[in-house]
Design brief:
- By secondary structure, the protein is of the alpha+beta class.
- The protein has a single domain, classed as Beta-grasp domain (Ubiquitin-like (UB roll), Roll), CATH 3.10.20.30.
- Strands 2-1-7-4-5 form a 5-stranded mixed β-sheet.
- Strand 4 and strand 5 form a beta hairpin.
Length: 78
């Protein structure tokens, strides 16, 4: 089981700040799973960054049980 933390538009559109998911695999596989689970947000998930333990991780990063994963969409400011 991993814990996902959602921010910005993801939090708004999904309607929750966090959720737990049964998952073991790479960040790339997690991205694909999230796009499948929330098809209306596919374009957002394509450009999200993922962080584990306050460190950005790449597509090949292997996630294990108990990980806390921040899913961070692009943000704009001014």
């Amino acid at each position: 089981m991993i814990k996902l933390l959602y921010f910005a538009i993801l939090k708004e559109k999904i309607g929750k700040q966090e959720e737990e998911m049964e998952f073991v695999g790479t960040v790339g596989e997690l991205r694909a799973k999230l796009m499948e689970k929330y098809p209306q947000l596919e374009q957002v998930f394509k450009v999200c960054l993922f962080a584990v333990d306050h460190q950005y991780v790449g597509e090949d990063f292997q996630l294990g049980k108990g990980e806390v994963v921040a899913v961070i969409p692009p943000v704009s400011g001014g």
